[in-house]
Amino acid sequence: MSDPLEKVSSNKSFEGELTKYKFKSAALGGLSANFNLFLPTNASPSNKVPVLVYLAGLTCTEDNGFVKGSFLGPASSQGIAILFPDTSPRGAGIQGEDVDWDFGTGAGFYLNATNPKFSAHYNMYTHIALELPTVIEAAGIPIDWKRQSIFGHSMGGHGALTMYLSSPQKQYRSASAFSPVSNPTKCPWGEKAFAGYLQGGVEEAKEKYDATELIAKNKEPVHILIDFGTADNFYKQNQLLPENFLKAARDANYDEFQVRVRSQEGYDHSYYFISTFASDHVHFHANFLKA
């Protein structure tokens, strides 16, 4: 069982409140976990608000999204909370977890590890989908967990798409992504992560952790928006593969109203790109969160 929340800091922003919390996470093997939570001004015990979960990319922490993403203003105007989890466990002390920037600390890939070396701590899927809603609700924070959507950037875009498509009972109403790792079983980042975290490697990952594989098999209606930049070096290096996801979606008979993939001319992989289209994404989710 996870420990209760401890408030670390709080700041007023766009008439709402941005608060950093920490707690000892059972899902992450008893390690201390941080997250940030933005509550709009209309949130109260008598008015629980919908929530957007933002998953950040490789090397990021729980802070990158709210500092650089330009999400808080649009979220405040729509009366939507935003949850900013971390990207991995911190301080597990596993041999080799800090050797490379794209694996281990800061690179949890939003999965539940099955390799025994990592399985005690690297359970970001459970941490985000189950643990955080439970501990936040237990703290009496006024969020309506029946109205959740999810979005993310790069590795976090991968996490958002896969958690949306694989979650039971459609936990999330919609998903969007900036420059997502869309077909990770066929790119170097994903191949490396899955070989390390999963006993079955890439073959195991296809079942739950590859958005392109998941959309191809999905039979339910979906609401997905993806943006990527044509000047993104990681796109050019075939780490992202958004066209693979789009083809799989179209082959599965999803039209542009259910799955929209937009190429943005001249934009790169940075938060300059994300902040430009942040409002688009918040308003996209508002259509479903406020319905």
From TrEMBL:
Reaction equations catalysed: S-formylglutathione + H2O = formate + glutathione + H(+)
UniProt-listed InterPro entries: AB_hydrolase_fold (IPR029058), Esterase-like (IPR000801), S-formylglutathione_hydrol (IPR014186)
A single GO cellular-component term on record: cytosol
Active-site residues (renumbered): S154, D232, H269
Subcellular location: Cytoplasm
Chief localisation class: cytoplasm
Top EC class for this record: hydrolase
One BP annotation, GO: formaldehyde catabolic process
The protein's Enzyme Commission number: 3.1.2.12
Top-level taxon of the source organism: Eukaryota
Keyword Transmembrane: no
Keyword terms, alphabetized: Cytoplasm, Hydrolase, Serine esterase
One Pfam family in the UniProt entry: Esterase
GO molecular function: carboxylic ester hydrolase activity; S-formylglutathione hydrolase activity
Function, in words: Serine hydrolase involved in the detoxification of formaldehyde.
Similarity comment: family membership: Belongs to the esterase D family.
Name the UniProt record assigns to this protein: S-formylglutathione hydrolase
Organism: Lentinula aciculospora
